Amino acid sequence: MSDDILSVEGLQVAYTSVRRTVEAVRGVDLSVPRGGIVALVGESGSGKSSVSQALVRRLPENGAITGGAIRFDGLDLARVRERTLRRIRGGQIAFVPQDPNASLNPVMRIGEQIAEQLRLHTGMSRADAATRTVEILGDVGIPNPEVRAGQYPHELSGGMKQRVLIGMAWSCDPRLVIADEPTSALDVTVQRRVLDQIEQLAETRGTAVLLVTHDLGVAKDRAQHVVVMQQGLVVDQGSTHDVLGTPRTDYTRELVAAAPGLTSRRLEPTLEGDSPSEPVVQRPLLEVVGLRKTFAQGDDTFVAADDVSFVVPAGRTVALVGESGSGKTTTARMAARITQADDGRVLFRGQDITDLRGAGLREWRRSVQVVYQNPFGSLDPRMSVEALIAEPLRAFRIGSRAERSRRVRDLLDSVRLPSTVAERLPVELSGGQRQRIAIARALALQPELLVLDEPVSALDVSVQTQILQVLVDLQAALGLGYLFITHDFGVVRQISDHVVVMREGRVVEQGPAERMLTLPESDYARELIEAVPGAL
Question: Which domain holds residue 144?
Answer without folding.
Answer: 101-173
